[in-house]
Amino acid sequence: MAVIAAHCQCFRYGFLGVNLFFAISGFLITTLLLRERAKHHDISLRSFYARRSLRIFPLYYAVLLIYMGSVLFFKNETLEGRLFWDYLPSYLTYTCNWFLDYENEQRVVFSLAWSLAAEEQFYAVWPSVEKHIRGKTLWGVLAGIFIASQAASLIPIDGDSGILVLIVRILRKIPIEILGGVALAHLLHSSRTYTAFSRLIGGKWTSSVLLVLLILGIFYFPAVIFLRFWAIALLMVAFLGSCVVRADHSLSWFLNLRTVKHIGVVSYGIYLMNQLCKNSALVLFRSLKWPQFNFLVFFVTVVISVAVASLSYRYYERWFLNLKTRFSR
Length: 329
What we know:
By secondary structure, the chain is mainly α. Helix content is 77%, strand content 0%.
């Protein structure tokens, strides 16, 4: 919902919804891998990639095909159309986050694919790390990736090509929230560190307190970009931990609302299709000659996005999800 608010220009910090998702994803995927290894004494990479492919690829490529058709018929001769075809190879290969020009992101059709690219790159690398590396060595790898990604952000890029420039771009685009989610998963998976962290962030009202601090941090933290985003990332990971370390925390009533849970189930479709739904809402507003107030556009976009994503989940995605269960351990 925060991302849609950002797309509708209702909430300038709505893009941070993606960062929170990164933290959740790093935590969830790593927790599933750790539990699989605890139960089966190994991690099946074949099963993991089969499950992920069946969950991610069908809807992603279907939506990308819709974008290709809409650009071909409506924007092919425009700057947006030319940029889309330029970026299409990176959309197809989940690498657009390495090449996307964020200063002109608003003009790039399907630019939201950058976050999905970051996710796929995490899926491509981290399960093998969890399978083959453990203990202090794994923590060293995690710390090394974090340090390398932050160091890369300090390196000026003078050219647009070359292997070294590409390496720097790749390192820059590693979301630190994913790394924080991975670290949280390990801390809560171990009985020793779980006990310590449950005391630290496991209070009934800790989730509410951390949410307030996170909101205040988004608006009021100093504008020193590194410190600000490090602090916000840390608060996001701590907030996530406070929501999962116990089932009866102070926000559980909200997270267990039927509507909220349904939005969670279909959220992948909402994220992928919200820009298309926003464009449809704008067409509707123009045809009915309604004033295009941002909050009204946001509300209509949310309604259309949830409806379309629900239909997609029931009549399209579920078929692939049923296949996915064959690879469950």
